Structure formats: C-alpha cells, structure tokens
From TrEMBL, chains A, B:
Protein's membrane topology: Multi-pass membrane protein
Species name: Shewanella canadensis
The name this protein goes by in its record: Magnesium transporter MgtE
NCBIfam families associated with the record: mgtE
GO molecular function, one term: metal ion binding
Entries under Pfam families matching the protein: CBS, MgtE, MgtE_N
Keyword set, alphabetical order: CBS domain, Cell membrane, Magnesium, Membrane, Metal-binding, Transmembrane, Transmembrane helix, Transport
Subcellular location, principal: membrane
Domain of life: Bacteria
C-alpha cells in the first residue's frame, strides 16, 4: 500500500522508529532505513530532529546522497552542515546538485574552502557554477538552471521526435522546449504536449508560441514568483539583456520562493529570521533573538519615559496607573491588523502609487470608526467597573485618539519604510508598537493630567 | 518588446493608465484595454482597485471572460462579485471555469441561486459539478480536476502516440498520463516526456512508473501541499478508497494552498482573516476586525485587574506604575518569537510526538537564558535611570520569571491548542499575550509589594 507512507502521521511514526532505533544503537538498521528513503524525506526528518539526533543521522547518510539531501534543506541547517564537511566531500556532493542550489551553497562558504571546492570539481562543473555565481542572489539568474533543450525554428516535428528519441530522457520538469536562432536569441517555445499531438509534418515555427515571454535575468525572485503564480506557469525561459536564452526557471524553485516570502512576512513581524531553524541549538537561537529584544527594550523604556512625564498624576491617582495599559494595548492590536494587511499587499505587489493614498484613507477611516465603537464600550466598561464617569470619559477619549492614529500609522509606516528601502515586514511591527504605545500613554495620561489635576 | 509588460512597475503604470482613463470617462478605451489583457492580469487589477473603480471595471469586462477572471480572484472579492451577478451570468461563466473553482463558487451561493445556476447549466457541466461538490472543502477532492487522460497498461507506445495525435490538445499542465485497468483502478503513470523519448515498440507497462503514489481523496489540502513541495511534483493522481482513479491535482492549485496556508499564519497572528480584501469597503472591514478587538479588550481588562490587586503599592510608588509596562512588553516579544517559530513548524508538519517535548524544553531554556541576559541589562538600565538599586533588582527578577514563562508558554500554547483542535495561528497570539501580560504584571507588582511594603 504505497499510499500509506504519504500520511503525515506515518512520517511522524517513521521519525519515532528512527529515534528509537538510534536510541538503542541500531545504527546499521537506521542506515538502511535512510538509504531507502527519498532525499526529500531524509531532509524533512533532519529538519524535524534535535541537534544531537541530527549529528548522528548525518553521519549515517550515504555520501552519494549528500548533494540531493542538501538541496532539500532549509538555509540555516544547510549552512551548518556544510561548515562541518570537508571541501572534498562538498565537491563530491556538488556534482549531484542543481546549479542554482550549488551556487547558493558556494556563496556561503569561507573563501579558502570555496576555492578548494572549486578546484576539486570537474572543469565542466566549474564552468557551470562560475556562471551561476555571476548572478546576484535573489534574482531570476540565481533561480535558473541551464539544462534547457533548444530547437531551431525551421526543423520539422518528425525530425525533432527522432532527435529526442536518440537523445533520451529529458531534464526533470521539462514542459517546454525553447526555440532559438543561430545566435542563441530566444524566439519562443514549444510545449512537449504539443509535440505529441500535432501533425509531424509541421515545422517548429508553425506550432511554436512566439508570444511566450522571457524573464529578464536580473528580475527579483519575488517578481518571478508573482508571474508564475499569476500565469500558472510550470517553467519559464530566462533571457539576457541581448535577448539570448540563458536558462530556465522551474516551478519547484518558485514554490520555495513563495514559501520563503510568505514566511518572511510572518516570521519578520514576530521579530524572527525566516531561515530560523525550529530545532536549532539553544545558545545560537538565544543570540539570534537578542537583537529584537534589544530594540524592544528601548521601545519599552521610551514608553516608560512617557509615563515618567506624568509622575505627578500617577502619584495622586493609582487608578490611572491601573488602567493605563488598556489604551496602548487596543491601539497596538488595531494597528497590527492594518499592518499585516498592508505588508501582505506589498508582498503581493498589489500596492502602488495609484492606490496607496486610497488605502491609507481607508485604514484611517476604519481606525476612526473602530475608535468611536471602542471608546463607547470602554467608557461603559470603566464607568461600570470604577463607578467613575469622568474616568470612563478620559479613557474613551484617549482610545479614540489612539485607534485613529493606529489605523493611519499601520498603513503609512510600512509604505514609508518601503520607500526608504527598509523591509516593512521586519521593522514595521516594532515601529508601529512604539507609536501606538507612546501615543496611547500620552493621550490617556495627558488627558488625565489636564482634567484631573487642573 | 513583450518582456517589458512583465515588470511590476509597468503593472502599476497600467493601473495608473486605467485609473486615468476611467477618471476621464474613456470607457470604450478601458474596455478594449481590459479585453487585450490576460484573465490573471485583469484579476490582479481588480484586486488592487478601490471598491468604486472595481464596480466600473467589472461592468466593462467582457461577459465571455467572466469565468476565467473569477477563477483568479481572492475569495472575499470573488464572493462579493458573484453575489451581484444574475444566476444566468453565473451559469454562463461556470462553463469556462475549472471544476474545483466552480464547486468553490457554488458552495458560497444562497440555495435559491445555487439551484437556478445548476439548472441553467448543460447536463454535462451539472454532473461534473455535482461530483466535485460531494467532496468536503479543504480536501484533495476539492482541489481535484477530472480532466485526466488515461491509458491501459498493455498497449504499445506507438498506438498511444497515434491516439494522442487524433485526440488533439492535452489538458493544461498535463505532465503525466495515468494508467488504469478495466475497473478504473489506478496502476501507475507515464510521463509525457518519456513518451517522446522511449522506444515506440515498448508497451505502456514497460515504461510506466508503478511506484507512483496516488493521493487519497480525503487527504487535507495542506498535507497535499506538503507532499507536492517535498517531492517537487507538477501533478498527482487522486484515488478513492477502492483505489479507483478519480482525477488529478495540479501544482497551480497547490501553489494557491501554499500561499493561503502561509498567509493564514501571518494574518491569523495579527488577528486577521487570510481572505481579508486589502481594498475592501470600510464598514465591512471595520466589523471584521471587531471580534479580535473585543477579545483583546477582555485581555486588557484582565491585565488591568491584576494591577488593580496592587492598588496600595501603586498609590505609594508612582515609579512602579511608570515601569510596570516594561516587563510584560519584553515577555510578549520573547513569547511571540517562540510562537511564530512553533506555528510555522506545525504548519510545515515538522512537529510531532517525537520532538514536541524536546522543543518545549529548548524554548524554555532559551527563555531562561534570555531572561538572565535581560534581567541584568534591565537591572543596570533602571539602576542608572532611577538611581535605585532595589528597584532595578525587582524589575530584573520579574523579567527573569516572565521571560522563562514566555518561552515555555510560547511553545506549549500552540501545541496545546492544536491538540484541542483550535487553530494555533488564530488563537495563539492572544492567549500568549494574556499570559505574558498577567504573569509579567503579577511578578513585578507582586515582588514590589512584597519587598517595598513589608
């Protein structure tokens, strides 16, 4: 029953089995289990294991499969494992890796190891890799593979069919063959399904899609992903400035970009790196999280220094102190809702010059309406709790101010950060919370001081 | 230069052009611009437009293209537009939609319209749709299309090649043809690229991949997505309990699931629905966000009631009131870092019985270490600011307690919620913040009361 191994609970079971076999020292058994698994499954198990188990598993893995498994791992874990490998082993693994993944790995190596690895390669691999390295990270070039099959436009289909039969197996995930002229200029593409169904006497020119668009090699990987998503592509040709065909991008690499971009927004908003390794070592994780906590400490001290300005009020009215966290809290949540929406819109490329002003206006309006709604509710809640109608009014007024500001800030901060070329997913949350905390405390304590002390 | 239109800035330019043309009432021009665009591009422009522009654009769109455009829209906007359409227009659009998307749309219609739409369909379309509707939403069945091309195992390749040539064009995104026996039981698959390269005298049985795994029709769509990602599939067969081939799932629909799942985590953590429409109307958006704010109001009142327990302390020491927001704030950030990591791990299926205890232990350790680090730093900061060593010690001690709790709670809350079948991405953040606020205030105010008042 091949279907059963698909089930996630069974992946979990397999993990349990492996863990038990490791625990009782049955290394030969574990080795043979790992040998029988697909590279992607081994990678998944490594990702899901604590550091010590990982170390043992990694040593039990077939050297021949190292490359394929590295291909499938997340960046942080991949970097760690490679750092421990000898340059020879990296070079050996390299032979079995896709060009784009290999280029990624080489980029992260120290220079000395990098050169050693390059030298241990065959000259063919070396050329292939050196070319891939010439494209900046996070561009179409870095996602690209060079395993394209190209055709000339004036050849008949049956000649092509004979050629393909002699050539043998096509590269993985080939759905389109590309048509180029003698100078390798990109002319169009022919879907392999069309080769099967069309008249064999037709020429490539007759059946090729000349409207097929080539992706410029310098386009950002997020834009490439948007195009794939919007047009349901399985693969797409990559072309240089001179319209020469350089390679192709396949959907499996694009899926990784989509996943990474989406995770980047989610993890970034919580102050985490999207490469963060769920089962990474404790000390390293602790240090990685420190930066964000440092920034937050300053934000919290800033908020405290706002309260400090109203020490006199707080000395006289303990109730004010008790209630003063409510207004910043509601503003923070309302602002974060807007922020998440706008960050997603930016990531999807939905927000541009033509509509950003409208969007800010809309979020300001929502903030104001929510402010009206919640200032009334909080007014009633506090009046009921503390039996003090003035206090209820004060907190309601502060709430209205803070939630209106939160709507405006939640929409404009990420757009402003983007204009300044600062990543809104990373910085947006902290800047926003600081604004809503400061404004919230200032509004509530300021109103209280004005009305209660005068 | 067909490449240029790929550029996102040019999409933005096109949006500007459309907006201007609309503004100056050049509807005929707009209509012809929309007519020349791909359905996916029109959908993108609708998604990126404010409500009023959307209404006008929607009326200018060719009725013949409605189905394809609806296919490409986000759920909230799609639902809205369909509600405004006449049953006849929905039925007409239906003919041009994929089965899975159509089933989705029908599910969201009121019963009366639903029946009207079904009756306006051809009987062939009706059967196709009724079958798709029988599978629950969010399962493999609901992602599935029935446009499979099937083969028998004992036929020669050249017979198949002749058959395909007569049959004509293959369905979109076909990379594999499926092999079934007389009872439609699933036997395996043949990649179309292999049909091109293998010996025409071989039989299907010789070249078919019999190890190909079929996806059970009831598998959840997130698990389907994980399998596609892990195995780099372009399409996969879907089978029923009796091993009969029911249809196939293609990567373009899976990409939507991956995107939705990732967005769900991000938007959920900020208290937003992942279907939320960035350019939706104000009143509707305001109401959608209210639920989360209501819950937060209770959480904030709970925190305030903790402070209320220490009214005596707050009355005597205004400084305590000034500093009391720092400890909950740091705990909240630290806990949220852990929460984001664990929620992502759950979404990726990385966390199971075998490693969840290890993970909680690791996050507890990180929380404790961070607690030690930050209690020292905060101690120094407060000592320096307020020139009061006892106060520094109090806040440092509370910080250590709260950050340790935050690490433990950030890891265990989502795992606990998952066990209770509550969505951790949605509920996790609010539960966690409540815990870190309450514990943080309790620890700081409690320690202050104990040491300063006694």
């Amino acid at each position: 029953m091949p279907v059963e191994v698909l089930d996630n609970e069974l992946t979990d079971q397999r993990l349990n089995q492996l863990t038990q076999a490791l625990g009782s020292g049955m290394f030969v058994h574990v080795r043979s289990m790992l040998h029988d698994m697909a590279a992607s499954d081994v990678a998944f198990i490594l990702e899901s294991s604590p550091p010590r188990t990982r170390q043992v598993l990694w040593q039990l893995i077939d050297q021949d499969h190292t490359g394929e498994i590295l291909d499938e791992l997340g960046e942080e874990l991949k970097d760690n494992l490679i750092k421990q490998m000898s340059p020879e082993r990296v070079a050996k693994a390299a032979a079995r890796m896709d060009t784009d993944d290999l280029a990624y790995i080489l980029r992260s190596l120290p220079d000395s190891v990098f050169n050693q690895v390059l030298q241990s390669m065959t000259s063919q691999d070396r050329t292939r890799v050196e070319q891939a390295l010439s494209y900046p990270d996070d561009t179409a070039g870095s996602l690209m593979n060079t395993d394209t099959v190209t055709l000339r436009p004036d050849v008949n289909i049956d000649v092509i069919l004979r050629y393909l039969r002699i050539r043998g197996e096509l590269p993985e995930a080939t759905d389109t063959l590309y048509v180029v002229d003698k100078q390798d200029s990109f002319l169009g593409g022919v879907r392999i399904s069309d080769l099967l169904t069309c008249d064999p006497n037709a020429s490539i020119r007759d059946i090729m899609a000349s409207k097929l668009e080539g992706i410029p090699v310098g386009m950002s990987d997020s834009e490439v992903a948007q195009l794939f998503e919007r047009h349901d592509w399985l693969s797409a040709p990559v072309i240089g400035d001179d319209n020469r065909l350089l390679g192709r991008i396949t959907i499996d690499d694009v899926v990784d970009v989509i996943r990474e971009d989406a995770e980047h927004s989610m993890m970034g908003m919580a102050g985490m790196d999207d490469d963060a390794d769920t089962f990474g070592p404790v000390i390293k994780s602790t240090l990685q999280r420190s930066l964000w906590l440092t920034i937050n400490l300053f934000a919290a001290l800033l908020a405290a220094s706002v309260s400090n300005m109203f020490e006199g009020t707080l000395e006289q009215f303990a109730t004010i102190a008790i209630l003063m966290t409510i207004v910043p809290s509601m503003g923070g949540v309302a602002g974060n809702q807007t922020l998440a929406l706008v960050i997603r819109g930016i990531a999807l490329g939905q927000i541009g010059q033509s509509n950003s002003r409208w969007l800010i206006g809309k979020e300001l309006a929502i903030g104001f309406l929510n402010g009206v709604l919640w200032s009334v509710l909080v007014f009633l809640a506090i009046w009921f709790w503390k039996d003090d109608i003035a206090l209820g009014g004060l907190i309601g007024g502060a709430m209205l101010i803070n939630m209106t500001v939160a709507g405006f800030a939640g929409a404009s901060i990420p757009l402003l950060l983007k204009k300044m070329n600062i990543d809104p997913a990373l910085a947006g949350g902290m800047v926003l919370t600081t604004v809503t905390d400061v404004i919230g405390l200032f509004a509530f304590l300021g109103l209280a001081t004005f009305f209660l002390l005068n």
